[in-house]
Amino acid sequence: METKRxxxxxxxxxxxxxxxxxxxxxxxxxxxxxxxxxxPSGTPPHKDPTQVTDTKHRYTMAVLATLTNPHFEVSxxxxxxxxxxxxxxxxxxxxDLHGTAVRLFFITGADAILEIMGWKDSQELxxxxxxxxxxxxxxxxxxxxxxxxxxxxxQNKRLHILQVPAMAISSTDIRRRVRKxxxxxxxxxxxxxxxxxxxxxxxxxxxxxxxxxx
Length: 214
Ligand code: NAP
Prior knowledge:
The protein is of the alpha/beta class. About 40% of the residues lie in helices and about 15% in strands.
Protein backbone atom coordinates (compact mmCIF):
# COMPACT_ATOMS: atom_id res chain seq x y z
CA MET A 1 0.00 0.00 0.00
CA GLU A 2 1.31 3.46 -0.88
CA THR A 3 2.10 5.70 2.07
CA LYS A 4 -0.13 8.77 2.24
CA ARG A 5 1.64 12.00 3.17
CA UNK A 6 -0.51 14.29 5.30
CA UNK A 7 0.33 17.82 6.40
CA UNK A 8 -1.24 19.01 9.64
CA UNK A 9 -1.52 22.78 9.99
CA UNK A 10 -1.87 23.43 13.69
CA UNK A 11 -2.66 26.93 14.86
CA UNK A 12 -5.12 29.22 16.56
CA UNK A 13 -6.22 30.74 13.21
CA UNK A 14 -7.71 33.82 14.87
CA UNK A 15 -8.32 34.57 12.03
CA UNK A 16 -6.92 32.39 9.25
CA UNK A 17 -5.15 34.50 6.60
CA UNK A 18 -3.26 34.23 3.31
CA UNK A 19 0.02 33.64 5.16
CA UNK A 20 -1.39 30.34 6.48
CA UNK A 21 -2.81 29.37 3.08
CA UNK A 22 0.41 30.14 1.20
CA UNK A 23 2.40 28.22 3.85
CA UNK A 24 0.18 25.16 3.47
CA UNK A 25 0.41 25.26 -0.30
CA UNK A 26 4.21 25.71 -0.19
CA UNK A 27 4.54 22.77 2.22
CA UNK A 28 2.29 20.66 0.00
CA UNK A 29 4.58 21.30 -2.97
CA UNK A 30 7.89 20.98 -1.17
CA UNK A 31 7.05 17.83 0.81
CA UNK A 32 4.77 16.21 -1.82
CA UNK A 33 1.82 16.13 0.55
CA UNK A 34 -1.38 14.43 -0.61
CA UNK A 35 -3.51 16.49 1.74
CA UNK A 36 -3.23 19.31 4.24
CA UNK A 37 -5.48 19.24 7.28
CA UNK A 38 -6.05 22.56 9.04
CA UNK A 39 -6.53 22.05 12.76
CA PRO A 40 -7.87 25.09 14.59
CA SER A 41 -6.66 24.72 18.17
CA GLY A 42 -8.93 23.82 21.05
CA THR A 43 -7.58 24.80 24.45
CA PRO A 44 -3.80 24.76 24.11
CA PRO A 45 -1.83 24.41 27.33
CA HIS A 46 -0.22 27.85 27.08
CA LYS A 47 -3.19 30.10 26.24
CA ASP A 48 -5.95 31.81 28.18
CA PRO A 49 -9.13 30.54 26.45
CA THR A 50 -10.95 33.80 27.19
CA GLN A 51 -8.44 35.64 24.99
CA VAL A 52 -9.18 33.53 21.92
CA THR A 53 -12.21 33.86 19.63
CA ASP A 54 -14.88 31.18 19.95
CA THR A 55 -13.95 27.93 18.16
CA LYS A 56 -17.20 28.10 16.16
CA HIS A 57 -15.95 31.24 14.39
CA ARG A 58 -12.33 30.12 13.96
CA TYR A 59 -13.49 26.80 12.52
CA THR A 60 -16.00 28.41 10.12
CA MET A 61 -13.43 30.90 8.85
CA ALA A 62 -10.98 28.04 8.21
CA VAL A 63 -13.65 26.18 6.23
CA LEU A 64 -14.47 29.29 4.17
CA ALA A 65 -10.79 29.98 3.46
CA THR A 66 -9.93 26.44 2.33
CA LEU A 67 -13.08 25.72 0.32
CA THR A 68 -11.57 26.13 -3.12
CA ASN A 69 -8.46 23.97 -2.63
CA PRO A 70 -9.25 20.25 -3.19
CA HIS A 71 -6.15 19.27 -1.17
CA PHE A 72 -7.14 21.28 1.92
CA GLU A 73 -9.52 20.15 4.66
CA VAL A 74 -10.40 21.40 8.11
CA SER A 75 -10.39 18.95 10.99
CA UNK A 76 -12.30 19.26 14.26
CA UNK A 77 -9.92 16.89 16.03
CA UNK A 78 -8.58 19.58 18.38
CA UNK A 79 -11.75 21.59 18.91
CA UNK A 80 -14.03 18.65 19.71
CA UNK A 81 -11.83 17.41 22.56
CA UNK A 82 -12.47 18.59 26.08
CA UNK A 83 -9.67 19.71 28.36
CA UNK A 84 -6.23 20.83 27.32
CA UNK A 85 -5.27 19.84 23.78
CA UNK A 86 -1.77 18.47 23.55
CA UNK A 87 -0.30 17.84 20.11
CA UNK A 88 0.85 14.37 21.13
CA UNK A 89 -2.83 13.36 21.63
CA UNK A 90 -3.77 14.99 18.31
CA UNK A 91 -1.13 12.98 16.47
CA UNK A 92 -2.17 9.74 18.17
CA UNK A 93 -5.78 10.30 17.06
CA UNK A 94 -4.76 11.09 13.49
CA UNK A 95 -2.42 8.11 13.37
CA ASP A 96 -5.25 5.82 14.55
CA LEU A 97 -7.61 7.30 11.97
CA HIS A 98 -5.23 6.83 9.09
CA GLY A 99 -3.42 3.62 10.08
CA THR A 100 0.22 2.82 9.50
CA ALA A 101 0.31 3.76 5.81
CA VAL A 102 0.59 7.44 6.62
CA ARG A 103 3.44 9.88 7.10
CA LEU A 104 2.52 12.94 9.17
CA PHE A 105 4.07 16.41 8.79
CA PHE A 106 3.14 18.89 11.51
CA ILE A 107 3.32 22.46 10.18
CA THR A 108 3.20 25.52 12.37
CA GLY A 109 4.90 28.82 13.08
CA ALA A 110 8.59 28.65 13.98
CA ASP A 111 7.85 30.57 17.20
CA ALA A 112 5.67 27.69 18.38
CA ILE A 113 8.08 24.99 17.22
CA LEU A 114 10.92 26.66 19.15
CA GLU A 115 9.03 25.70 22.30
CA ILE A 116 8.53 22.07 21.32
CA MET A 117 11.01 20.65 23.80
CA GLY A 118 8.61 21.77 26.53
CA TRP A 119 5.57 20.10 24.95
CA LYS A 120 4.06 16.97 26.43
CA ASP A 121 5.95 13.77 25.46
CA SER A 122 8.26 15.69 23.13
CA GLN A 123 10.50 12.71 22.36
CA GLU A 124 7.55 10.59 21.28
CA LEU A 125 6.16 13.54 19.29
CA UNK A 126 9.29 13.57 17.15
CA UNK A 127 8.87 9.92 16.40
CA UNK A 128 5.30 10.41 15.21
CA UNK A 129 5.71 13.25 12.74
CA UNK A 130 8.15 15.45 10.96
CA UNK A 131 7.94 19.12 11.91
CA UNK A 132 7.85 22.01 9.47
CA UNK A 133 8.62 25.39 11.02
CA UNK A 134 7.21 28.22 8.89
CA UNK A 135 9.21 31.43 9.05
CA UNK A 136 9.48 34.59 7.12
CA UNK A 137 12.72 34.86 5.07
CA UNK A 138 15.65 36.01 7.15
CA UNK A 139 14.44 34.45 10.40
CA UNK A 140 17.41 32.37 11.60
CA UNK A 141 16.10 29.48 13.63
CA UNK A 142 19.60 28.22 14.36
CA UNK A 143 20.79 31.59 15.60
CA UNK A 144 17.80 31.91 17.90
CA UNK A 145 18.20 28.56 19.59
CA UNK A 146 21.30 26.64 18.57
CA UNK A 147 20.33 23.77 20.79
CA UNK A 148 16.98 23.07 19.19
CA UNK A 149 18.49 22.78 15.76
CA UNK A 150 21.14 20.45 17.09
CA UNK A 151 18.49 18.41 18.90
CA UNK A 152 16.36 18.04 15.79
CA UNK A 153 19.35 17.19 13.60
CA UNK A 154 20.25 14.41 15.98
CA GLN A 155 16.73 13.04 15.50
CA ASN A 156 17.16 12.10 11.87
CA LYS A 157 16.49 15.55 10.43
CA ARG A 158 12.86 15.60 11.41
CA LEU A 159 12.68 19.39 11.56
CA HIS A 160 12.36 21.34 8.35
CA ILE A 161 12.40 25.08 7.97
CA LEU A 162 10.10 26.56 5.36
CA GLN A 163 10.63 30.19 4.47
CA VAL A 164 7.43 31.86 3.36
CA PRO A 165 7.41 35.56 2.45
CA ALA A 166 3.64 35.76 3.02
CA MET A 167 4.19 34.90 6.71
CA ALA A 168 4.74 38.63 7.14
CA ILE A 169 0.93 38.67 7.44
CA SER A 170 -0.12 38.07 11.03
CA SER A 171 -3.41 37.38 12.80
CA THR A 172 -2.49 39.89 15.51
CA ASP A 173 -2.08 42.61 12.92
CA ILE A 174 -5.38 41.66 11.24
CA ARG A 175 -7.26 41.88 14.56
CA ARG A 176 -5.67 45.27 15.21
CA ARG A 177 -6.62 46.51 11.76
CA VAL A 178 -10.24 45.44 12.18
CA ARG A 179 -10.39 47.11 15.59
CA LYS A 180 -9.12 50.34 14.06
CA UNK A 181 -11.44 50.11 11.07
CA UNK A 182 -8.59 49.56 8.60
CA UNK A 183 -8.82 47.37 5.52
CA UNK A 184 -7.86 43.69 5.66
CA UNK A 185 -8.58 43.19 1.96
CA UNK A 186 -5.91 40.97 0.30
CA UNK A 187 -4.72 39.77 3.71
CA UNK A 188 -7.56 37.27 4.13
CA UNK A 189 -9.87 35.62 1.57
CA UNK A 190 -12.90 37.79 0.78
CA UNK A 191 -15.28 35.30 2.41
CA UNK A 192 -13.32 35.54 5.67
CA UNK A 193 -13.35 39.34 5.47
CA UNK A 194 -17.16 39.27 5.08
CA UNK A 195 -17.54 36.70 7.87
CA UNK A 196 -15.55 38.90 10.25
CA UNK A 197 -17.69 41.96 9.44
CA UNK A 198 -20.97 40.06 9.56
CA UNK A 199 -20.20 38.58 13.00
CA UNK A 200 -18.51 41.75 14.26
CA UNK A 201 -15.42 39.83 15.26
CA UNK A 202 -12.51 41.82 16.68
CA UNK A 203 -14.48 45.05 16.38
CA UNK A 204 -16.90 45.78 19.16
CA UNK A 205 -17.25 49.26 17.71
CA UNK A 206 -19.89 49.00 14.95
CA UNK A 207 -18.81 52.31 13.41
CA UNK A 208 -15.36 50.88 12.73
CA UNK A 209 -16.73 47.94 10.78
CA UNK A 210 -18.64 50.28 8.47
CA UNK A 211 -15.50 52.17 7.43
CA UNK A 212 -14.03 49.28 5.49
CA UNK A 213 -16.79 48.91 2.92
CA UNK A 214 -17.27 52.58 2.10
P1 NAP B 1 -0.26 30.39 17.44
O1 NAP B 1 -0.29 31.20 18.71
O2 NAP B 1 -1.49 30.29 16.65
O3 NAP B 1 0.95 30.92 16.55
C1 NAP B 1 2.28 31.12 16.97
C2 NAP B 1 3.01 31.79 15.80
O4 NAP B 1 3.07 30.92 14.65
C3 NAP B 1 2.34 33.05 15.29
O5 NAP B 1 3.33 33.89 14.76
C4 NAP B 1 1.44 32.52 14.18
O6 NAP B 1 1.08 33.50 13.25
C5 NAP B 1 2.28 31.44 13.55
N1 NAP B 1 1.46 30.30 13.08
C6 NAP B 1 0.47 29.67 13.73
N2 NAP B 1 0.01 28.61 13.06
C7 NAP B 1 0.71 28.58 11.90
C8 NAP B 1 0.73 27.71 10.80
N3 NAP B 1 -0.03 26.61 10.78
N4 NAP B 1 1.58 27.97 9.79
C9 NAP B 1 2.39 29.03 9.83
N5 NAP B 1 2.45 29.88 10.89
C10 NAP B 1 1.62 29.67 11.90
O7 NAP B 1 0.22 28.94 17.69
P2 NAP B 1 0.07 28.14 18.97
O8 NAP B 1 -1.27 28.24 19.55
O9 NAP B 1 1.17 28.51 19.85
O10 NAP B 1 0.24 26.62 18.51
C11 NAP B 1 0.56 26.16 17.25
C12 NAP B 1 0.28 24.65 17.27
O11 NAP B 1 1.12 24.03 18.22
C13 NAP B 1 -1.15 24.31 17.69
O12 NAP B 1 -1.59 23.21 16.94
C14 NAP B 1 -1.02 23.96 19.15
O13 NAP B 1 -2.03 23.06 19.61
C15 NAP B 1 0.35 23.32 19.18
N6 NAP B 1 0.94 23.42 20.53
C16 NAP B 1 1.03 22.29 21.27
C17 NAP B 1 1.55 22.33 22.55
C18 NAP B 1 1.64 21.05 23.36
O14 NAP B 1 1.28 20.00 22.86
N7 NAP B 1 2.11 21.13 24.58
C19 NAP B 1 2.00 23.56 23.07
C20 NAP B 1 1.90 24.70 22.27
C21 NAP B 1 1.37 24.63 21.00
P3 NAP B 1 -0.45 34.01 13.23
O15 NAP B 1 -0.70 34.61 14.59
O16 NAP B 1 -0.50 34.97 12.14
O17 NAP B 1 -1.27 32.79 13.06
